[in-house]
Amino acid sequence: MNTAAPTPAAADDAPDTSADEARFVAWLRQVAPYIHAFRGKTFVVAIPGELIQAGRLNALVQDLSLLHAMGMHIVVVHGSRPQVNEQLRLRGVEIQYAEGLRITDPVALECAKEASGEIRLDLEAAFSQGLPNTPMAHAAVRVVSGNLVMARPVGIVDGVDYQHTGLVRKIDVPTIRFALDSGALVLLSPLGYSPTGEAFNLSMEDLAASTATALDADKLIVLAEAGGIEGPDGSLRGEISEAEAKQLLESGTLEPATAFTLRHALRACEGGVARAHIIPFGIDGSVLLELFRHDGVGTMLVEETLEAVREAGPDDVGGVLALIRPLEDDGTLVRRDRGLIEREIGNFTVIEHDGVIFGCAALYAFPSEAIGEMACLAVNPQTQNRGDGERLLKRIEQRARAAGLKRLFVLTTRTMHWFLKRGFVLASVDQLPRERQGLYNWQRKSLVLIKHL
Ligand SMILES: CC(C)(COP(=O)(O)OP(=O)(O)OC[C@H]1O[C@@H](n2cnc3c(N)ncnc32)[C@H](O)[C@@H]1OP(=O)(O)O)[C@@H](O)C(=O)NCCC(=O)NCCS
């Protein structure tokens, strides 16, 4: 850290260090909420053999060490597909797959053991780095691995004998938890053992999803060559629900490798894992970008929520009115008559559960100034504090971004802290769009809060 004041001569030619410092401090503060939120949480990270082959292991290990230092409980599951194939090729043995799974004959099993042994040692070595002036300085990550996975044979399916290919039968949760709680990082290779003392070759995806489910992990993160899931127009889908994932899998439009990854991610979510991320390993720092930026670089699969967030239609006018009337009566919200709500219902987003409107918010755009107003945010008192307010805000932000808006503002008299906690900052009336300044009610004295999107 340089605490010396710059000399006047140096200050003239030097880049603007104070701006750099301010940016650095602002950036660090911006990621603080995520650090607080993720401390003590369990993340299962699946690293495919392709990532190792592409020479990206060291950078990823540095990033995972950083997460570990922030107090996240990390379980690493590695794959070994290309390494096993390489070994088989060297031995001149045919590579056999069925339904995306390797058929593991005795030679392939030998190759799988060799590949896993080598990768495990490489991973342990990478986590042991600690040279000064590198991101690993002082890292001191302890890695624990062992016979933590029980497996059973896949057996013969549709006439195909998978031989030594296995499926996860049981994960040794108490031992893994003990290791994590004592500050170690747990490393699992894609091999499991049976009570008969045999080893079975597992798929990384099955192992990662089973481990995340057994540990009731907060996140499953799968690094994939292809990256996240794309929509029909080729754009990245940042977030998909379980129902959408099922539809995509049934549509048969996904690449086989992506479908295989998504199927296991979905299984983890159905098993209770709150979030599964599929992210590209080709982007440097992709795990950090996905975790610490609002708009990540992959696809996040989220557990189904019971309520549906959707845009409102004419049939919702009654429900919206019933929700906001009590808040208008006590002065929390500005009064809006039925006619106005009917005319402007298209601006509303609602949360509906079994036909009842439990939450609403409206977006009014001022396109010429690339700013929008979120108005009329309300959640039924019976269902407050369950994240619905946050979900509505997120959807309004998405709508605003889609409309090309760069900023969002709110006027509030009683809810300032809720907005401050969600990235809004206090602003003044003259920062409102011109048209809105004219309508500002000086008697109500609402506070103006603005958020950059
Ligand atoms: C503000 C409101 C929409 C939040 O909805 P919600 O679904 O309860 O919100 P979330 O579940 O996403 O967030 C809950 C958190 O916000 C906090 N919170 C709720 N109302 C708050 C307020 N007025 N000020 C500060 N924090 C508040 C809760 O304590 C809770 O905090 P925690 O996460 O630390 O436990 C809801 O309380 C509401 O409808 N309020 C009345 C209408 C209103 O004030 N609208 C805003 C008009 S500008």
Short account of what is shown:
39% of the residues lie in helices and 24% in strands.
3D structure, described in words:
This protein folds into 2 domains: 26-302, 3-Layer(aba) Sandwich (Carbamate kinase); 308-452, 3-Layer(aba) Sandwich (Aminopeptidase). 39% of the residues lie in helices and 24% in strands. It is built from 16 helices and 23 strands. The strands form 6 sheets. An 8-stranded mixed β-sheet has the order 5-10-2-1-13-15-16-14, with helices on both faces. A 7-stranded mixed β-sheet has the order 17-18-19-20-21-23-22. It has a two-stranded antiparallel ribbon with strand order 3-4. β20, α14 (388-402) and β21 (407-412) form a beta-alpha-beta unit. The longest helix has 22 residues, at 17-38. Coenzyme A is lined by residues 327, 332-333, 377-379, 384-390, 410, 412, 414-415, 417-418.
* Overall spatial form: elongated
CATH class bucket of the largest domain: Alpha Beta
What is the strand tally? 23
Terminal CA distance reads: 32 Å
Instruction: Bin the helical content.
Output: 25-40%
Instruction: List the uncertain runs.
Output: 1-11
* CATH third-tier fold name of the largest domain: Carbamate kinase
Largest sheet: 8 strands, mixed
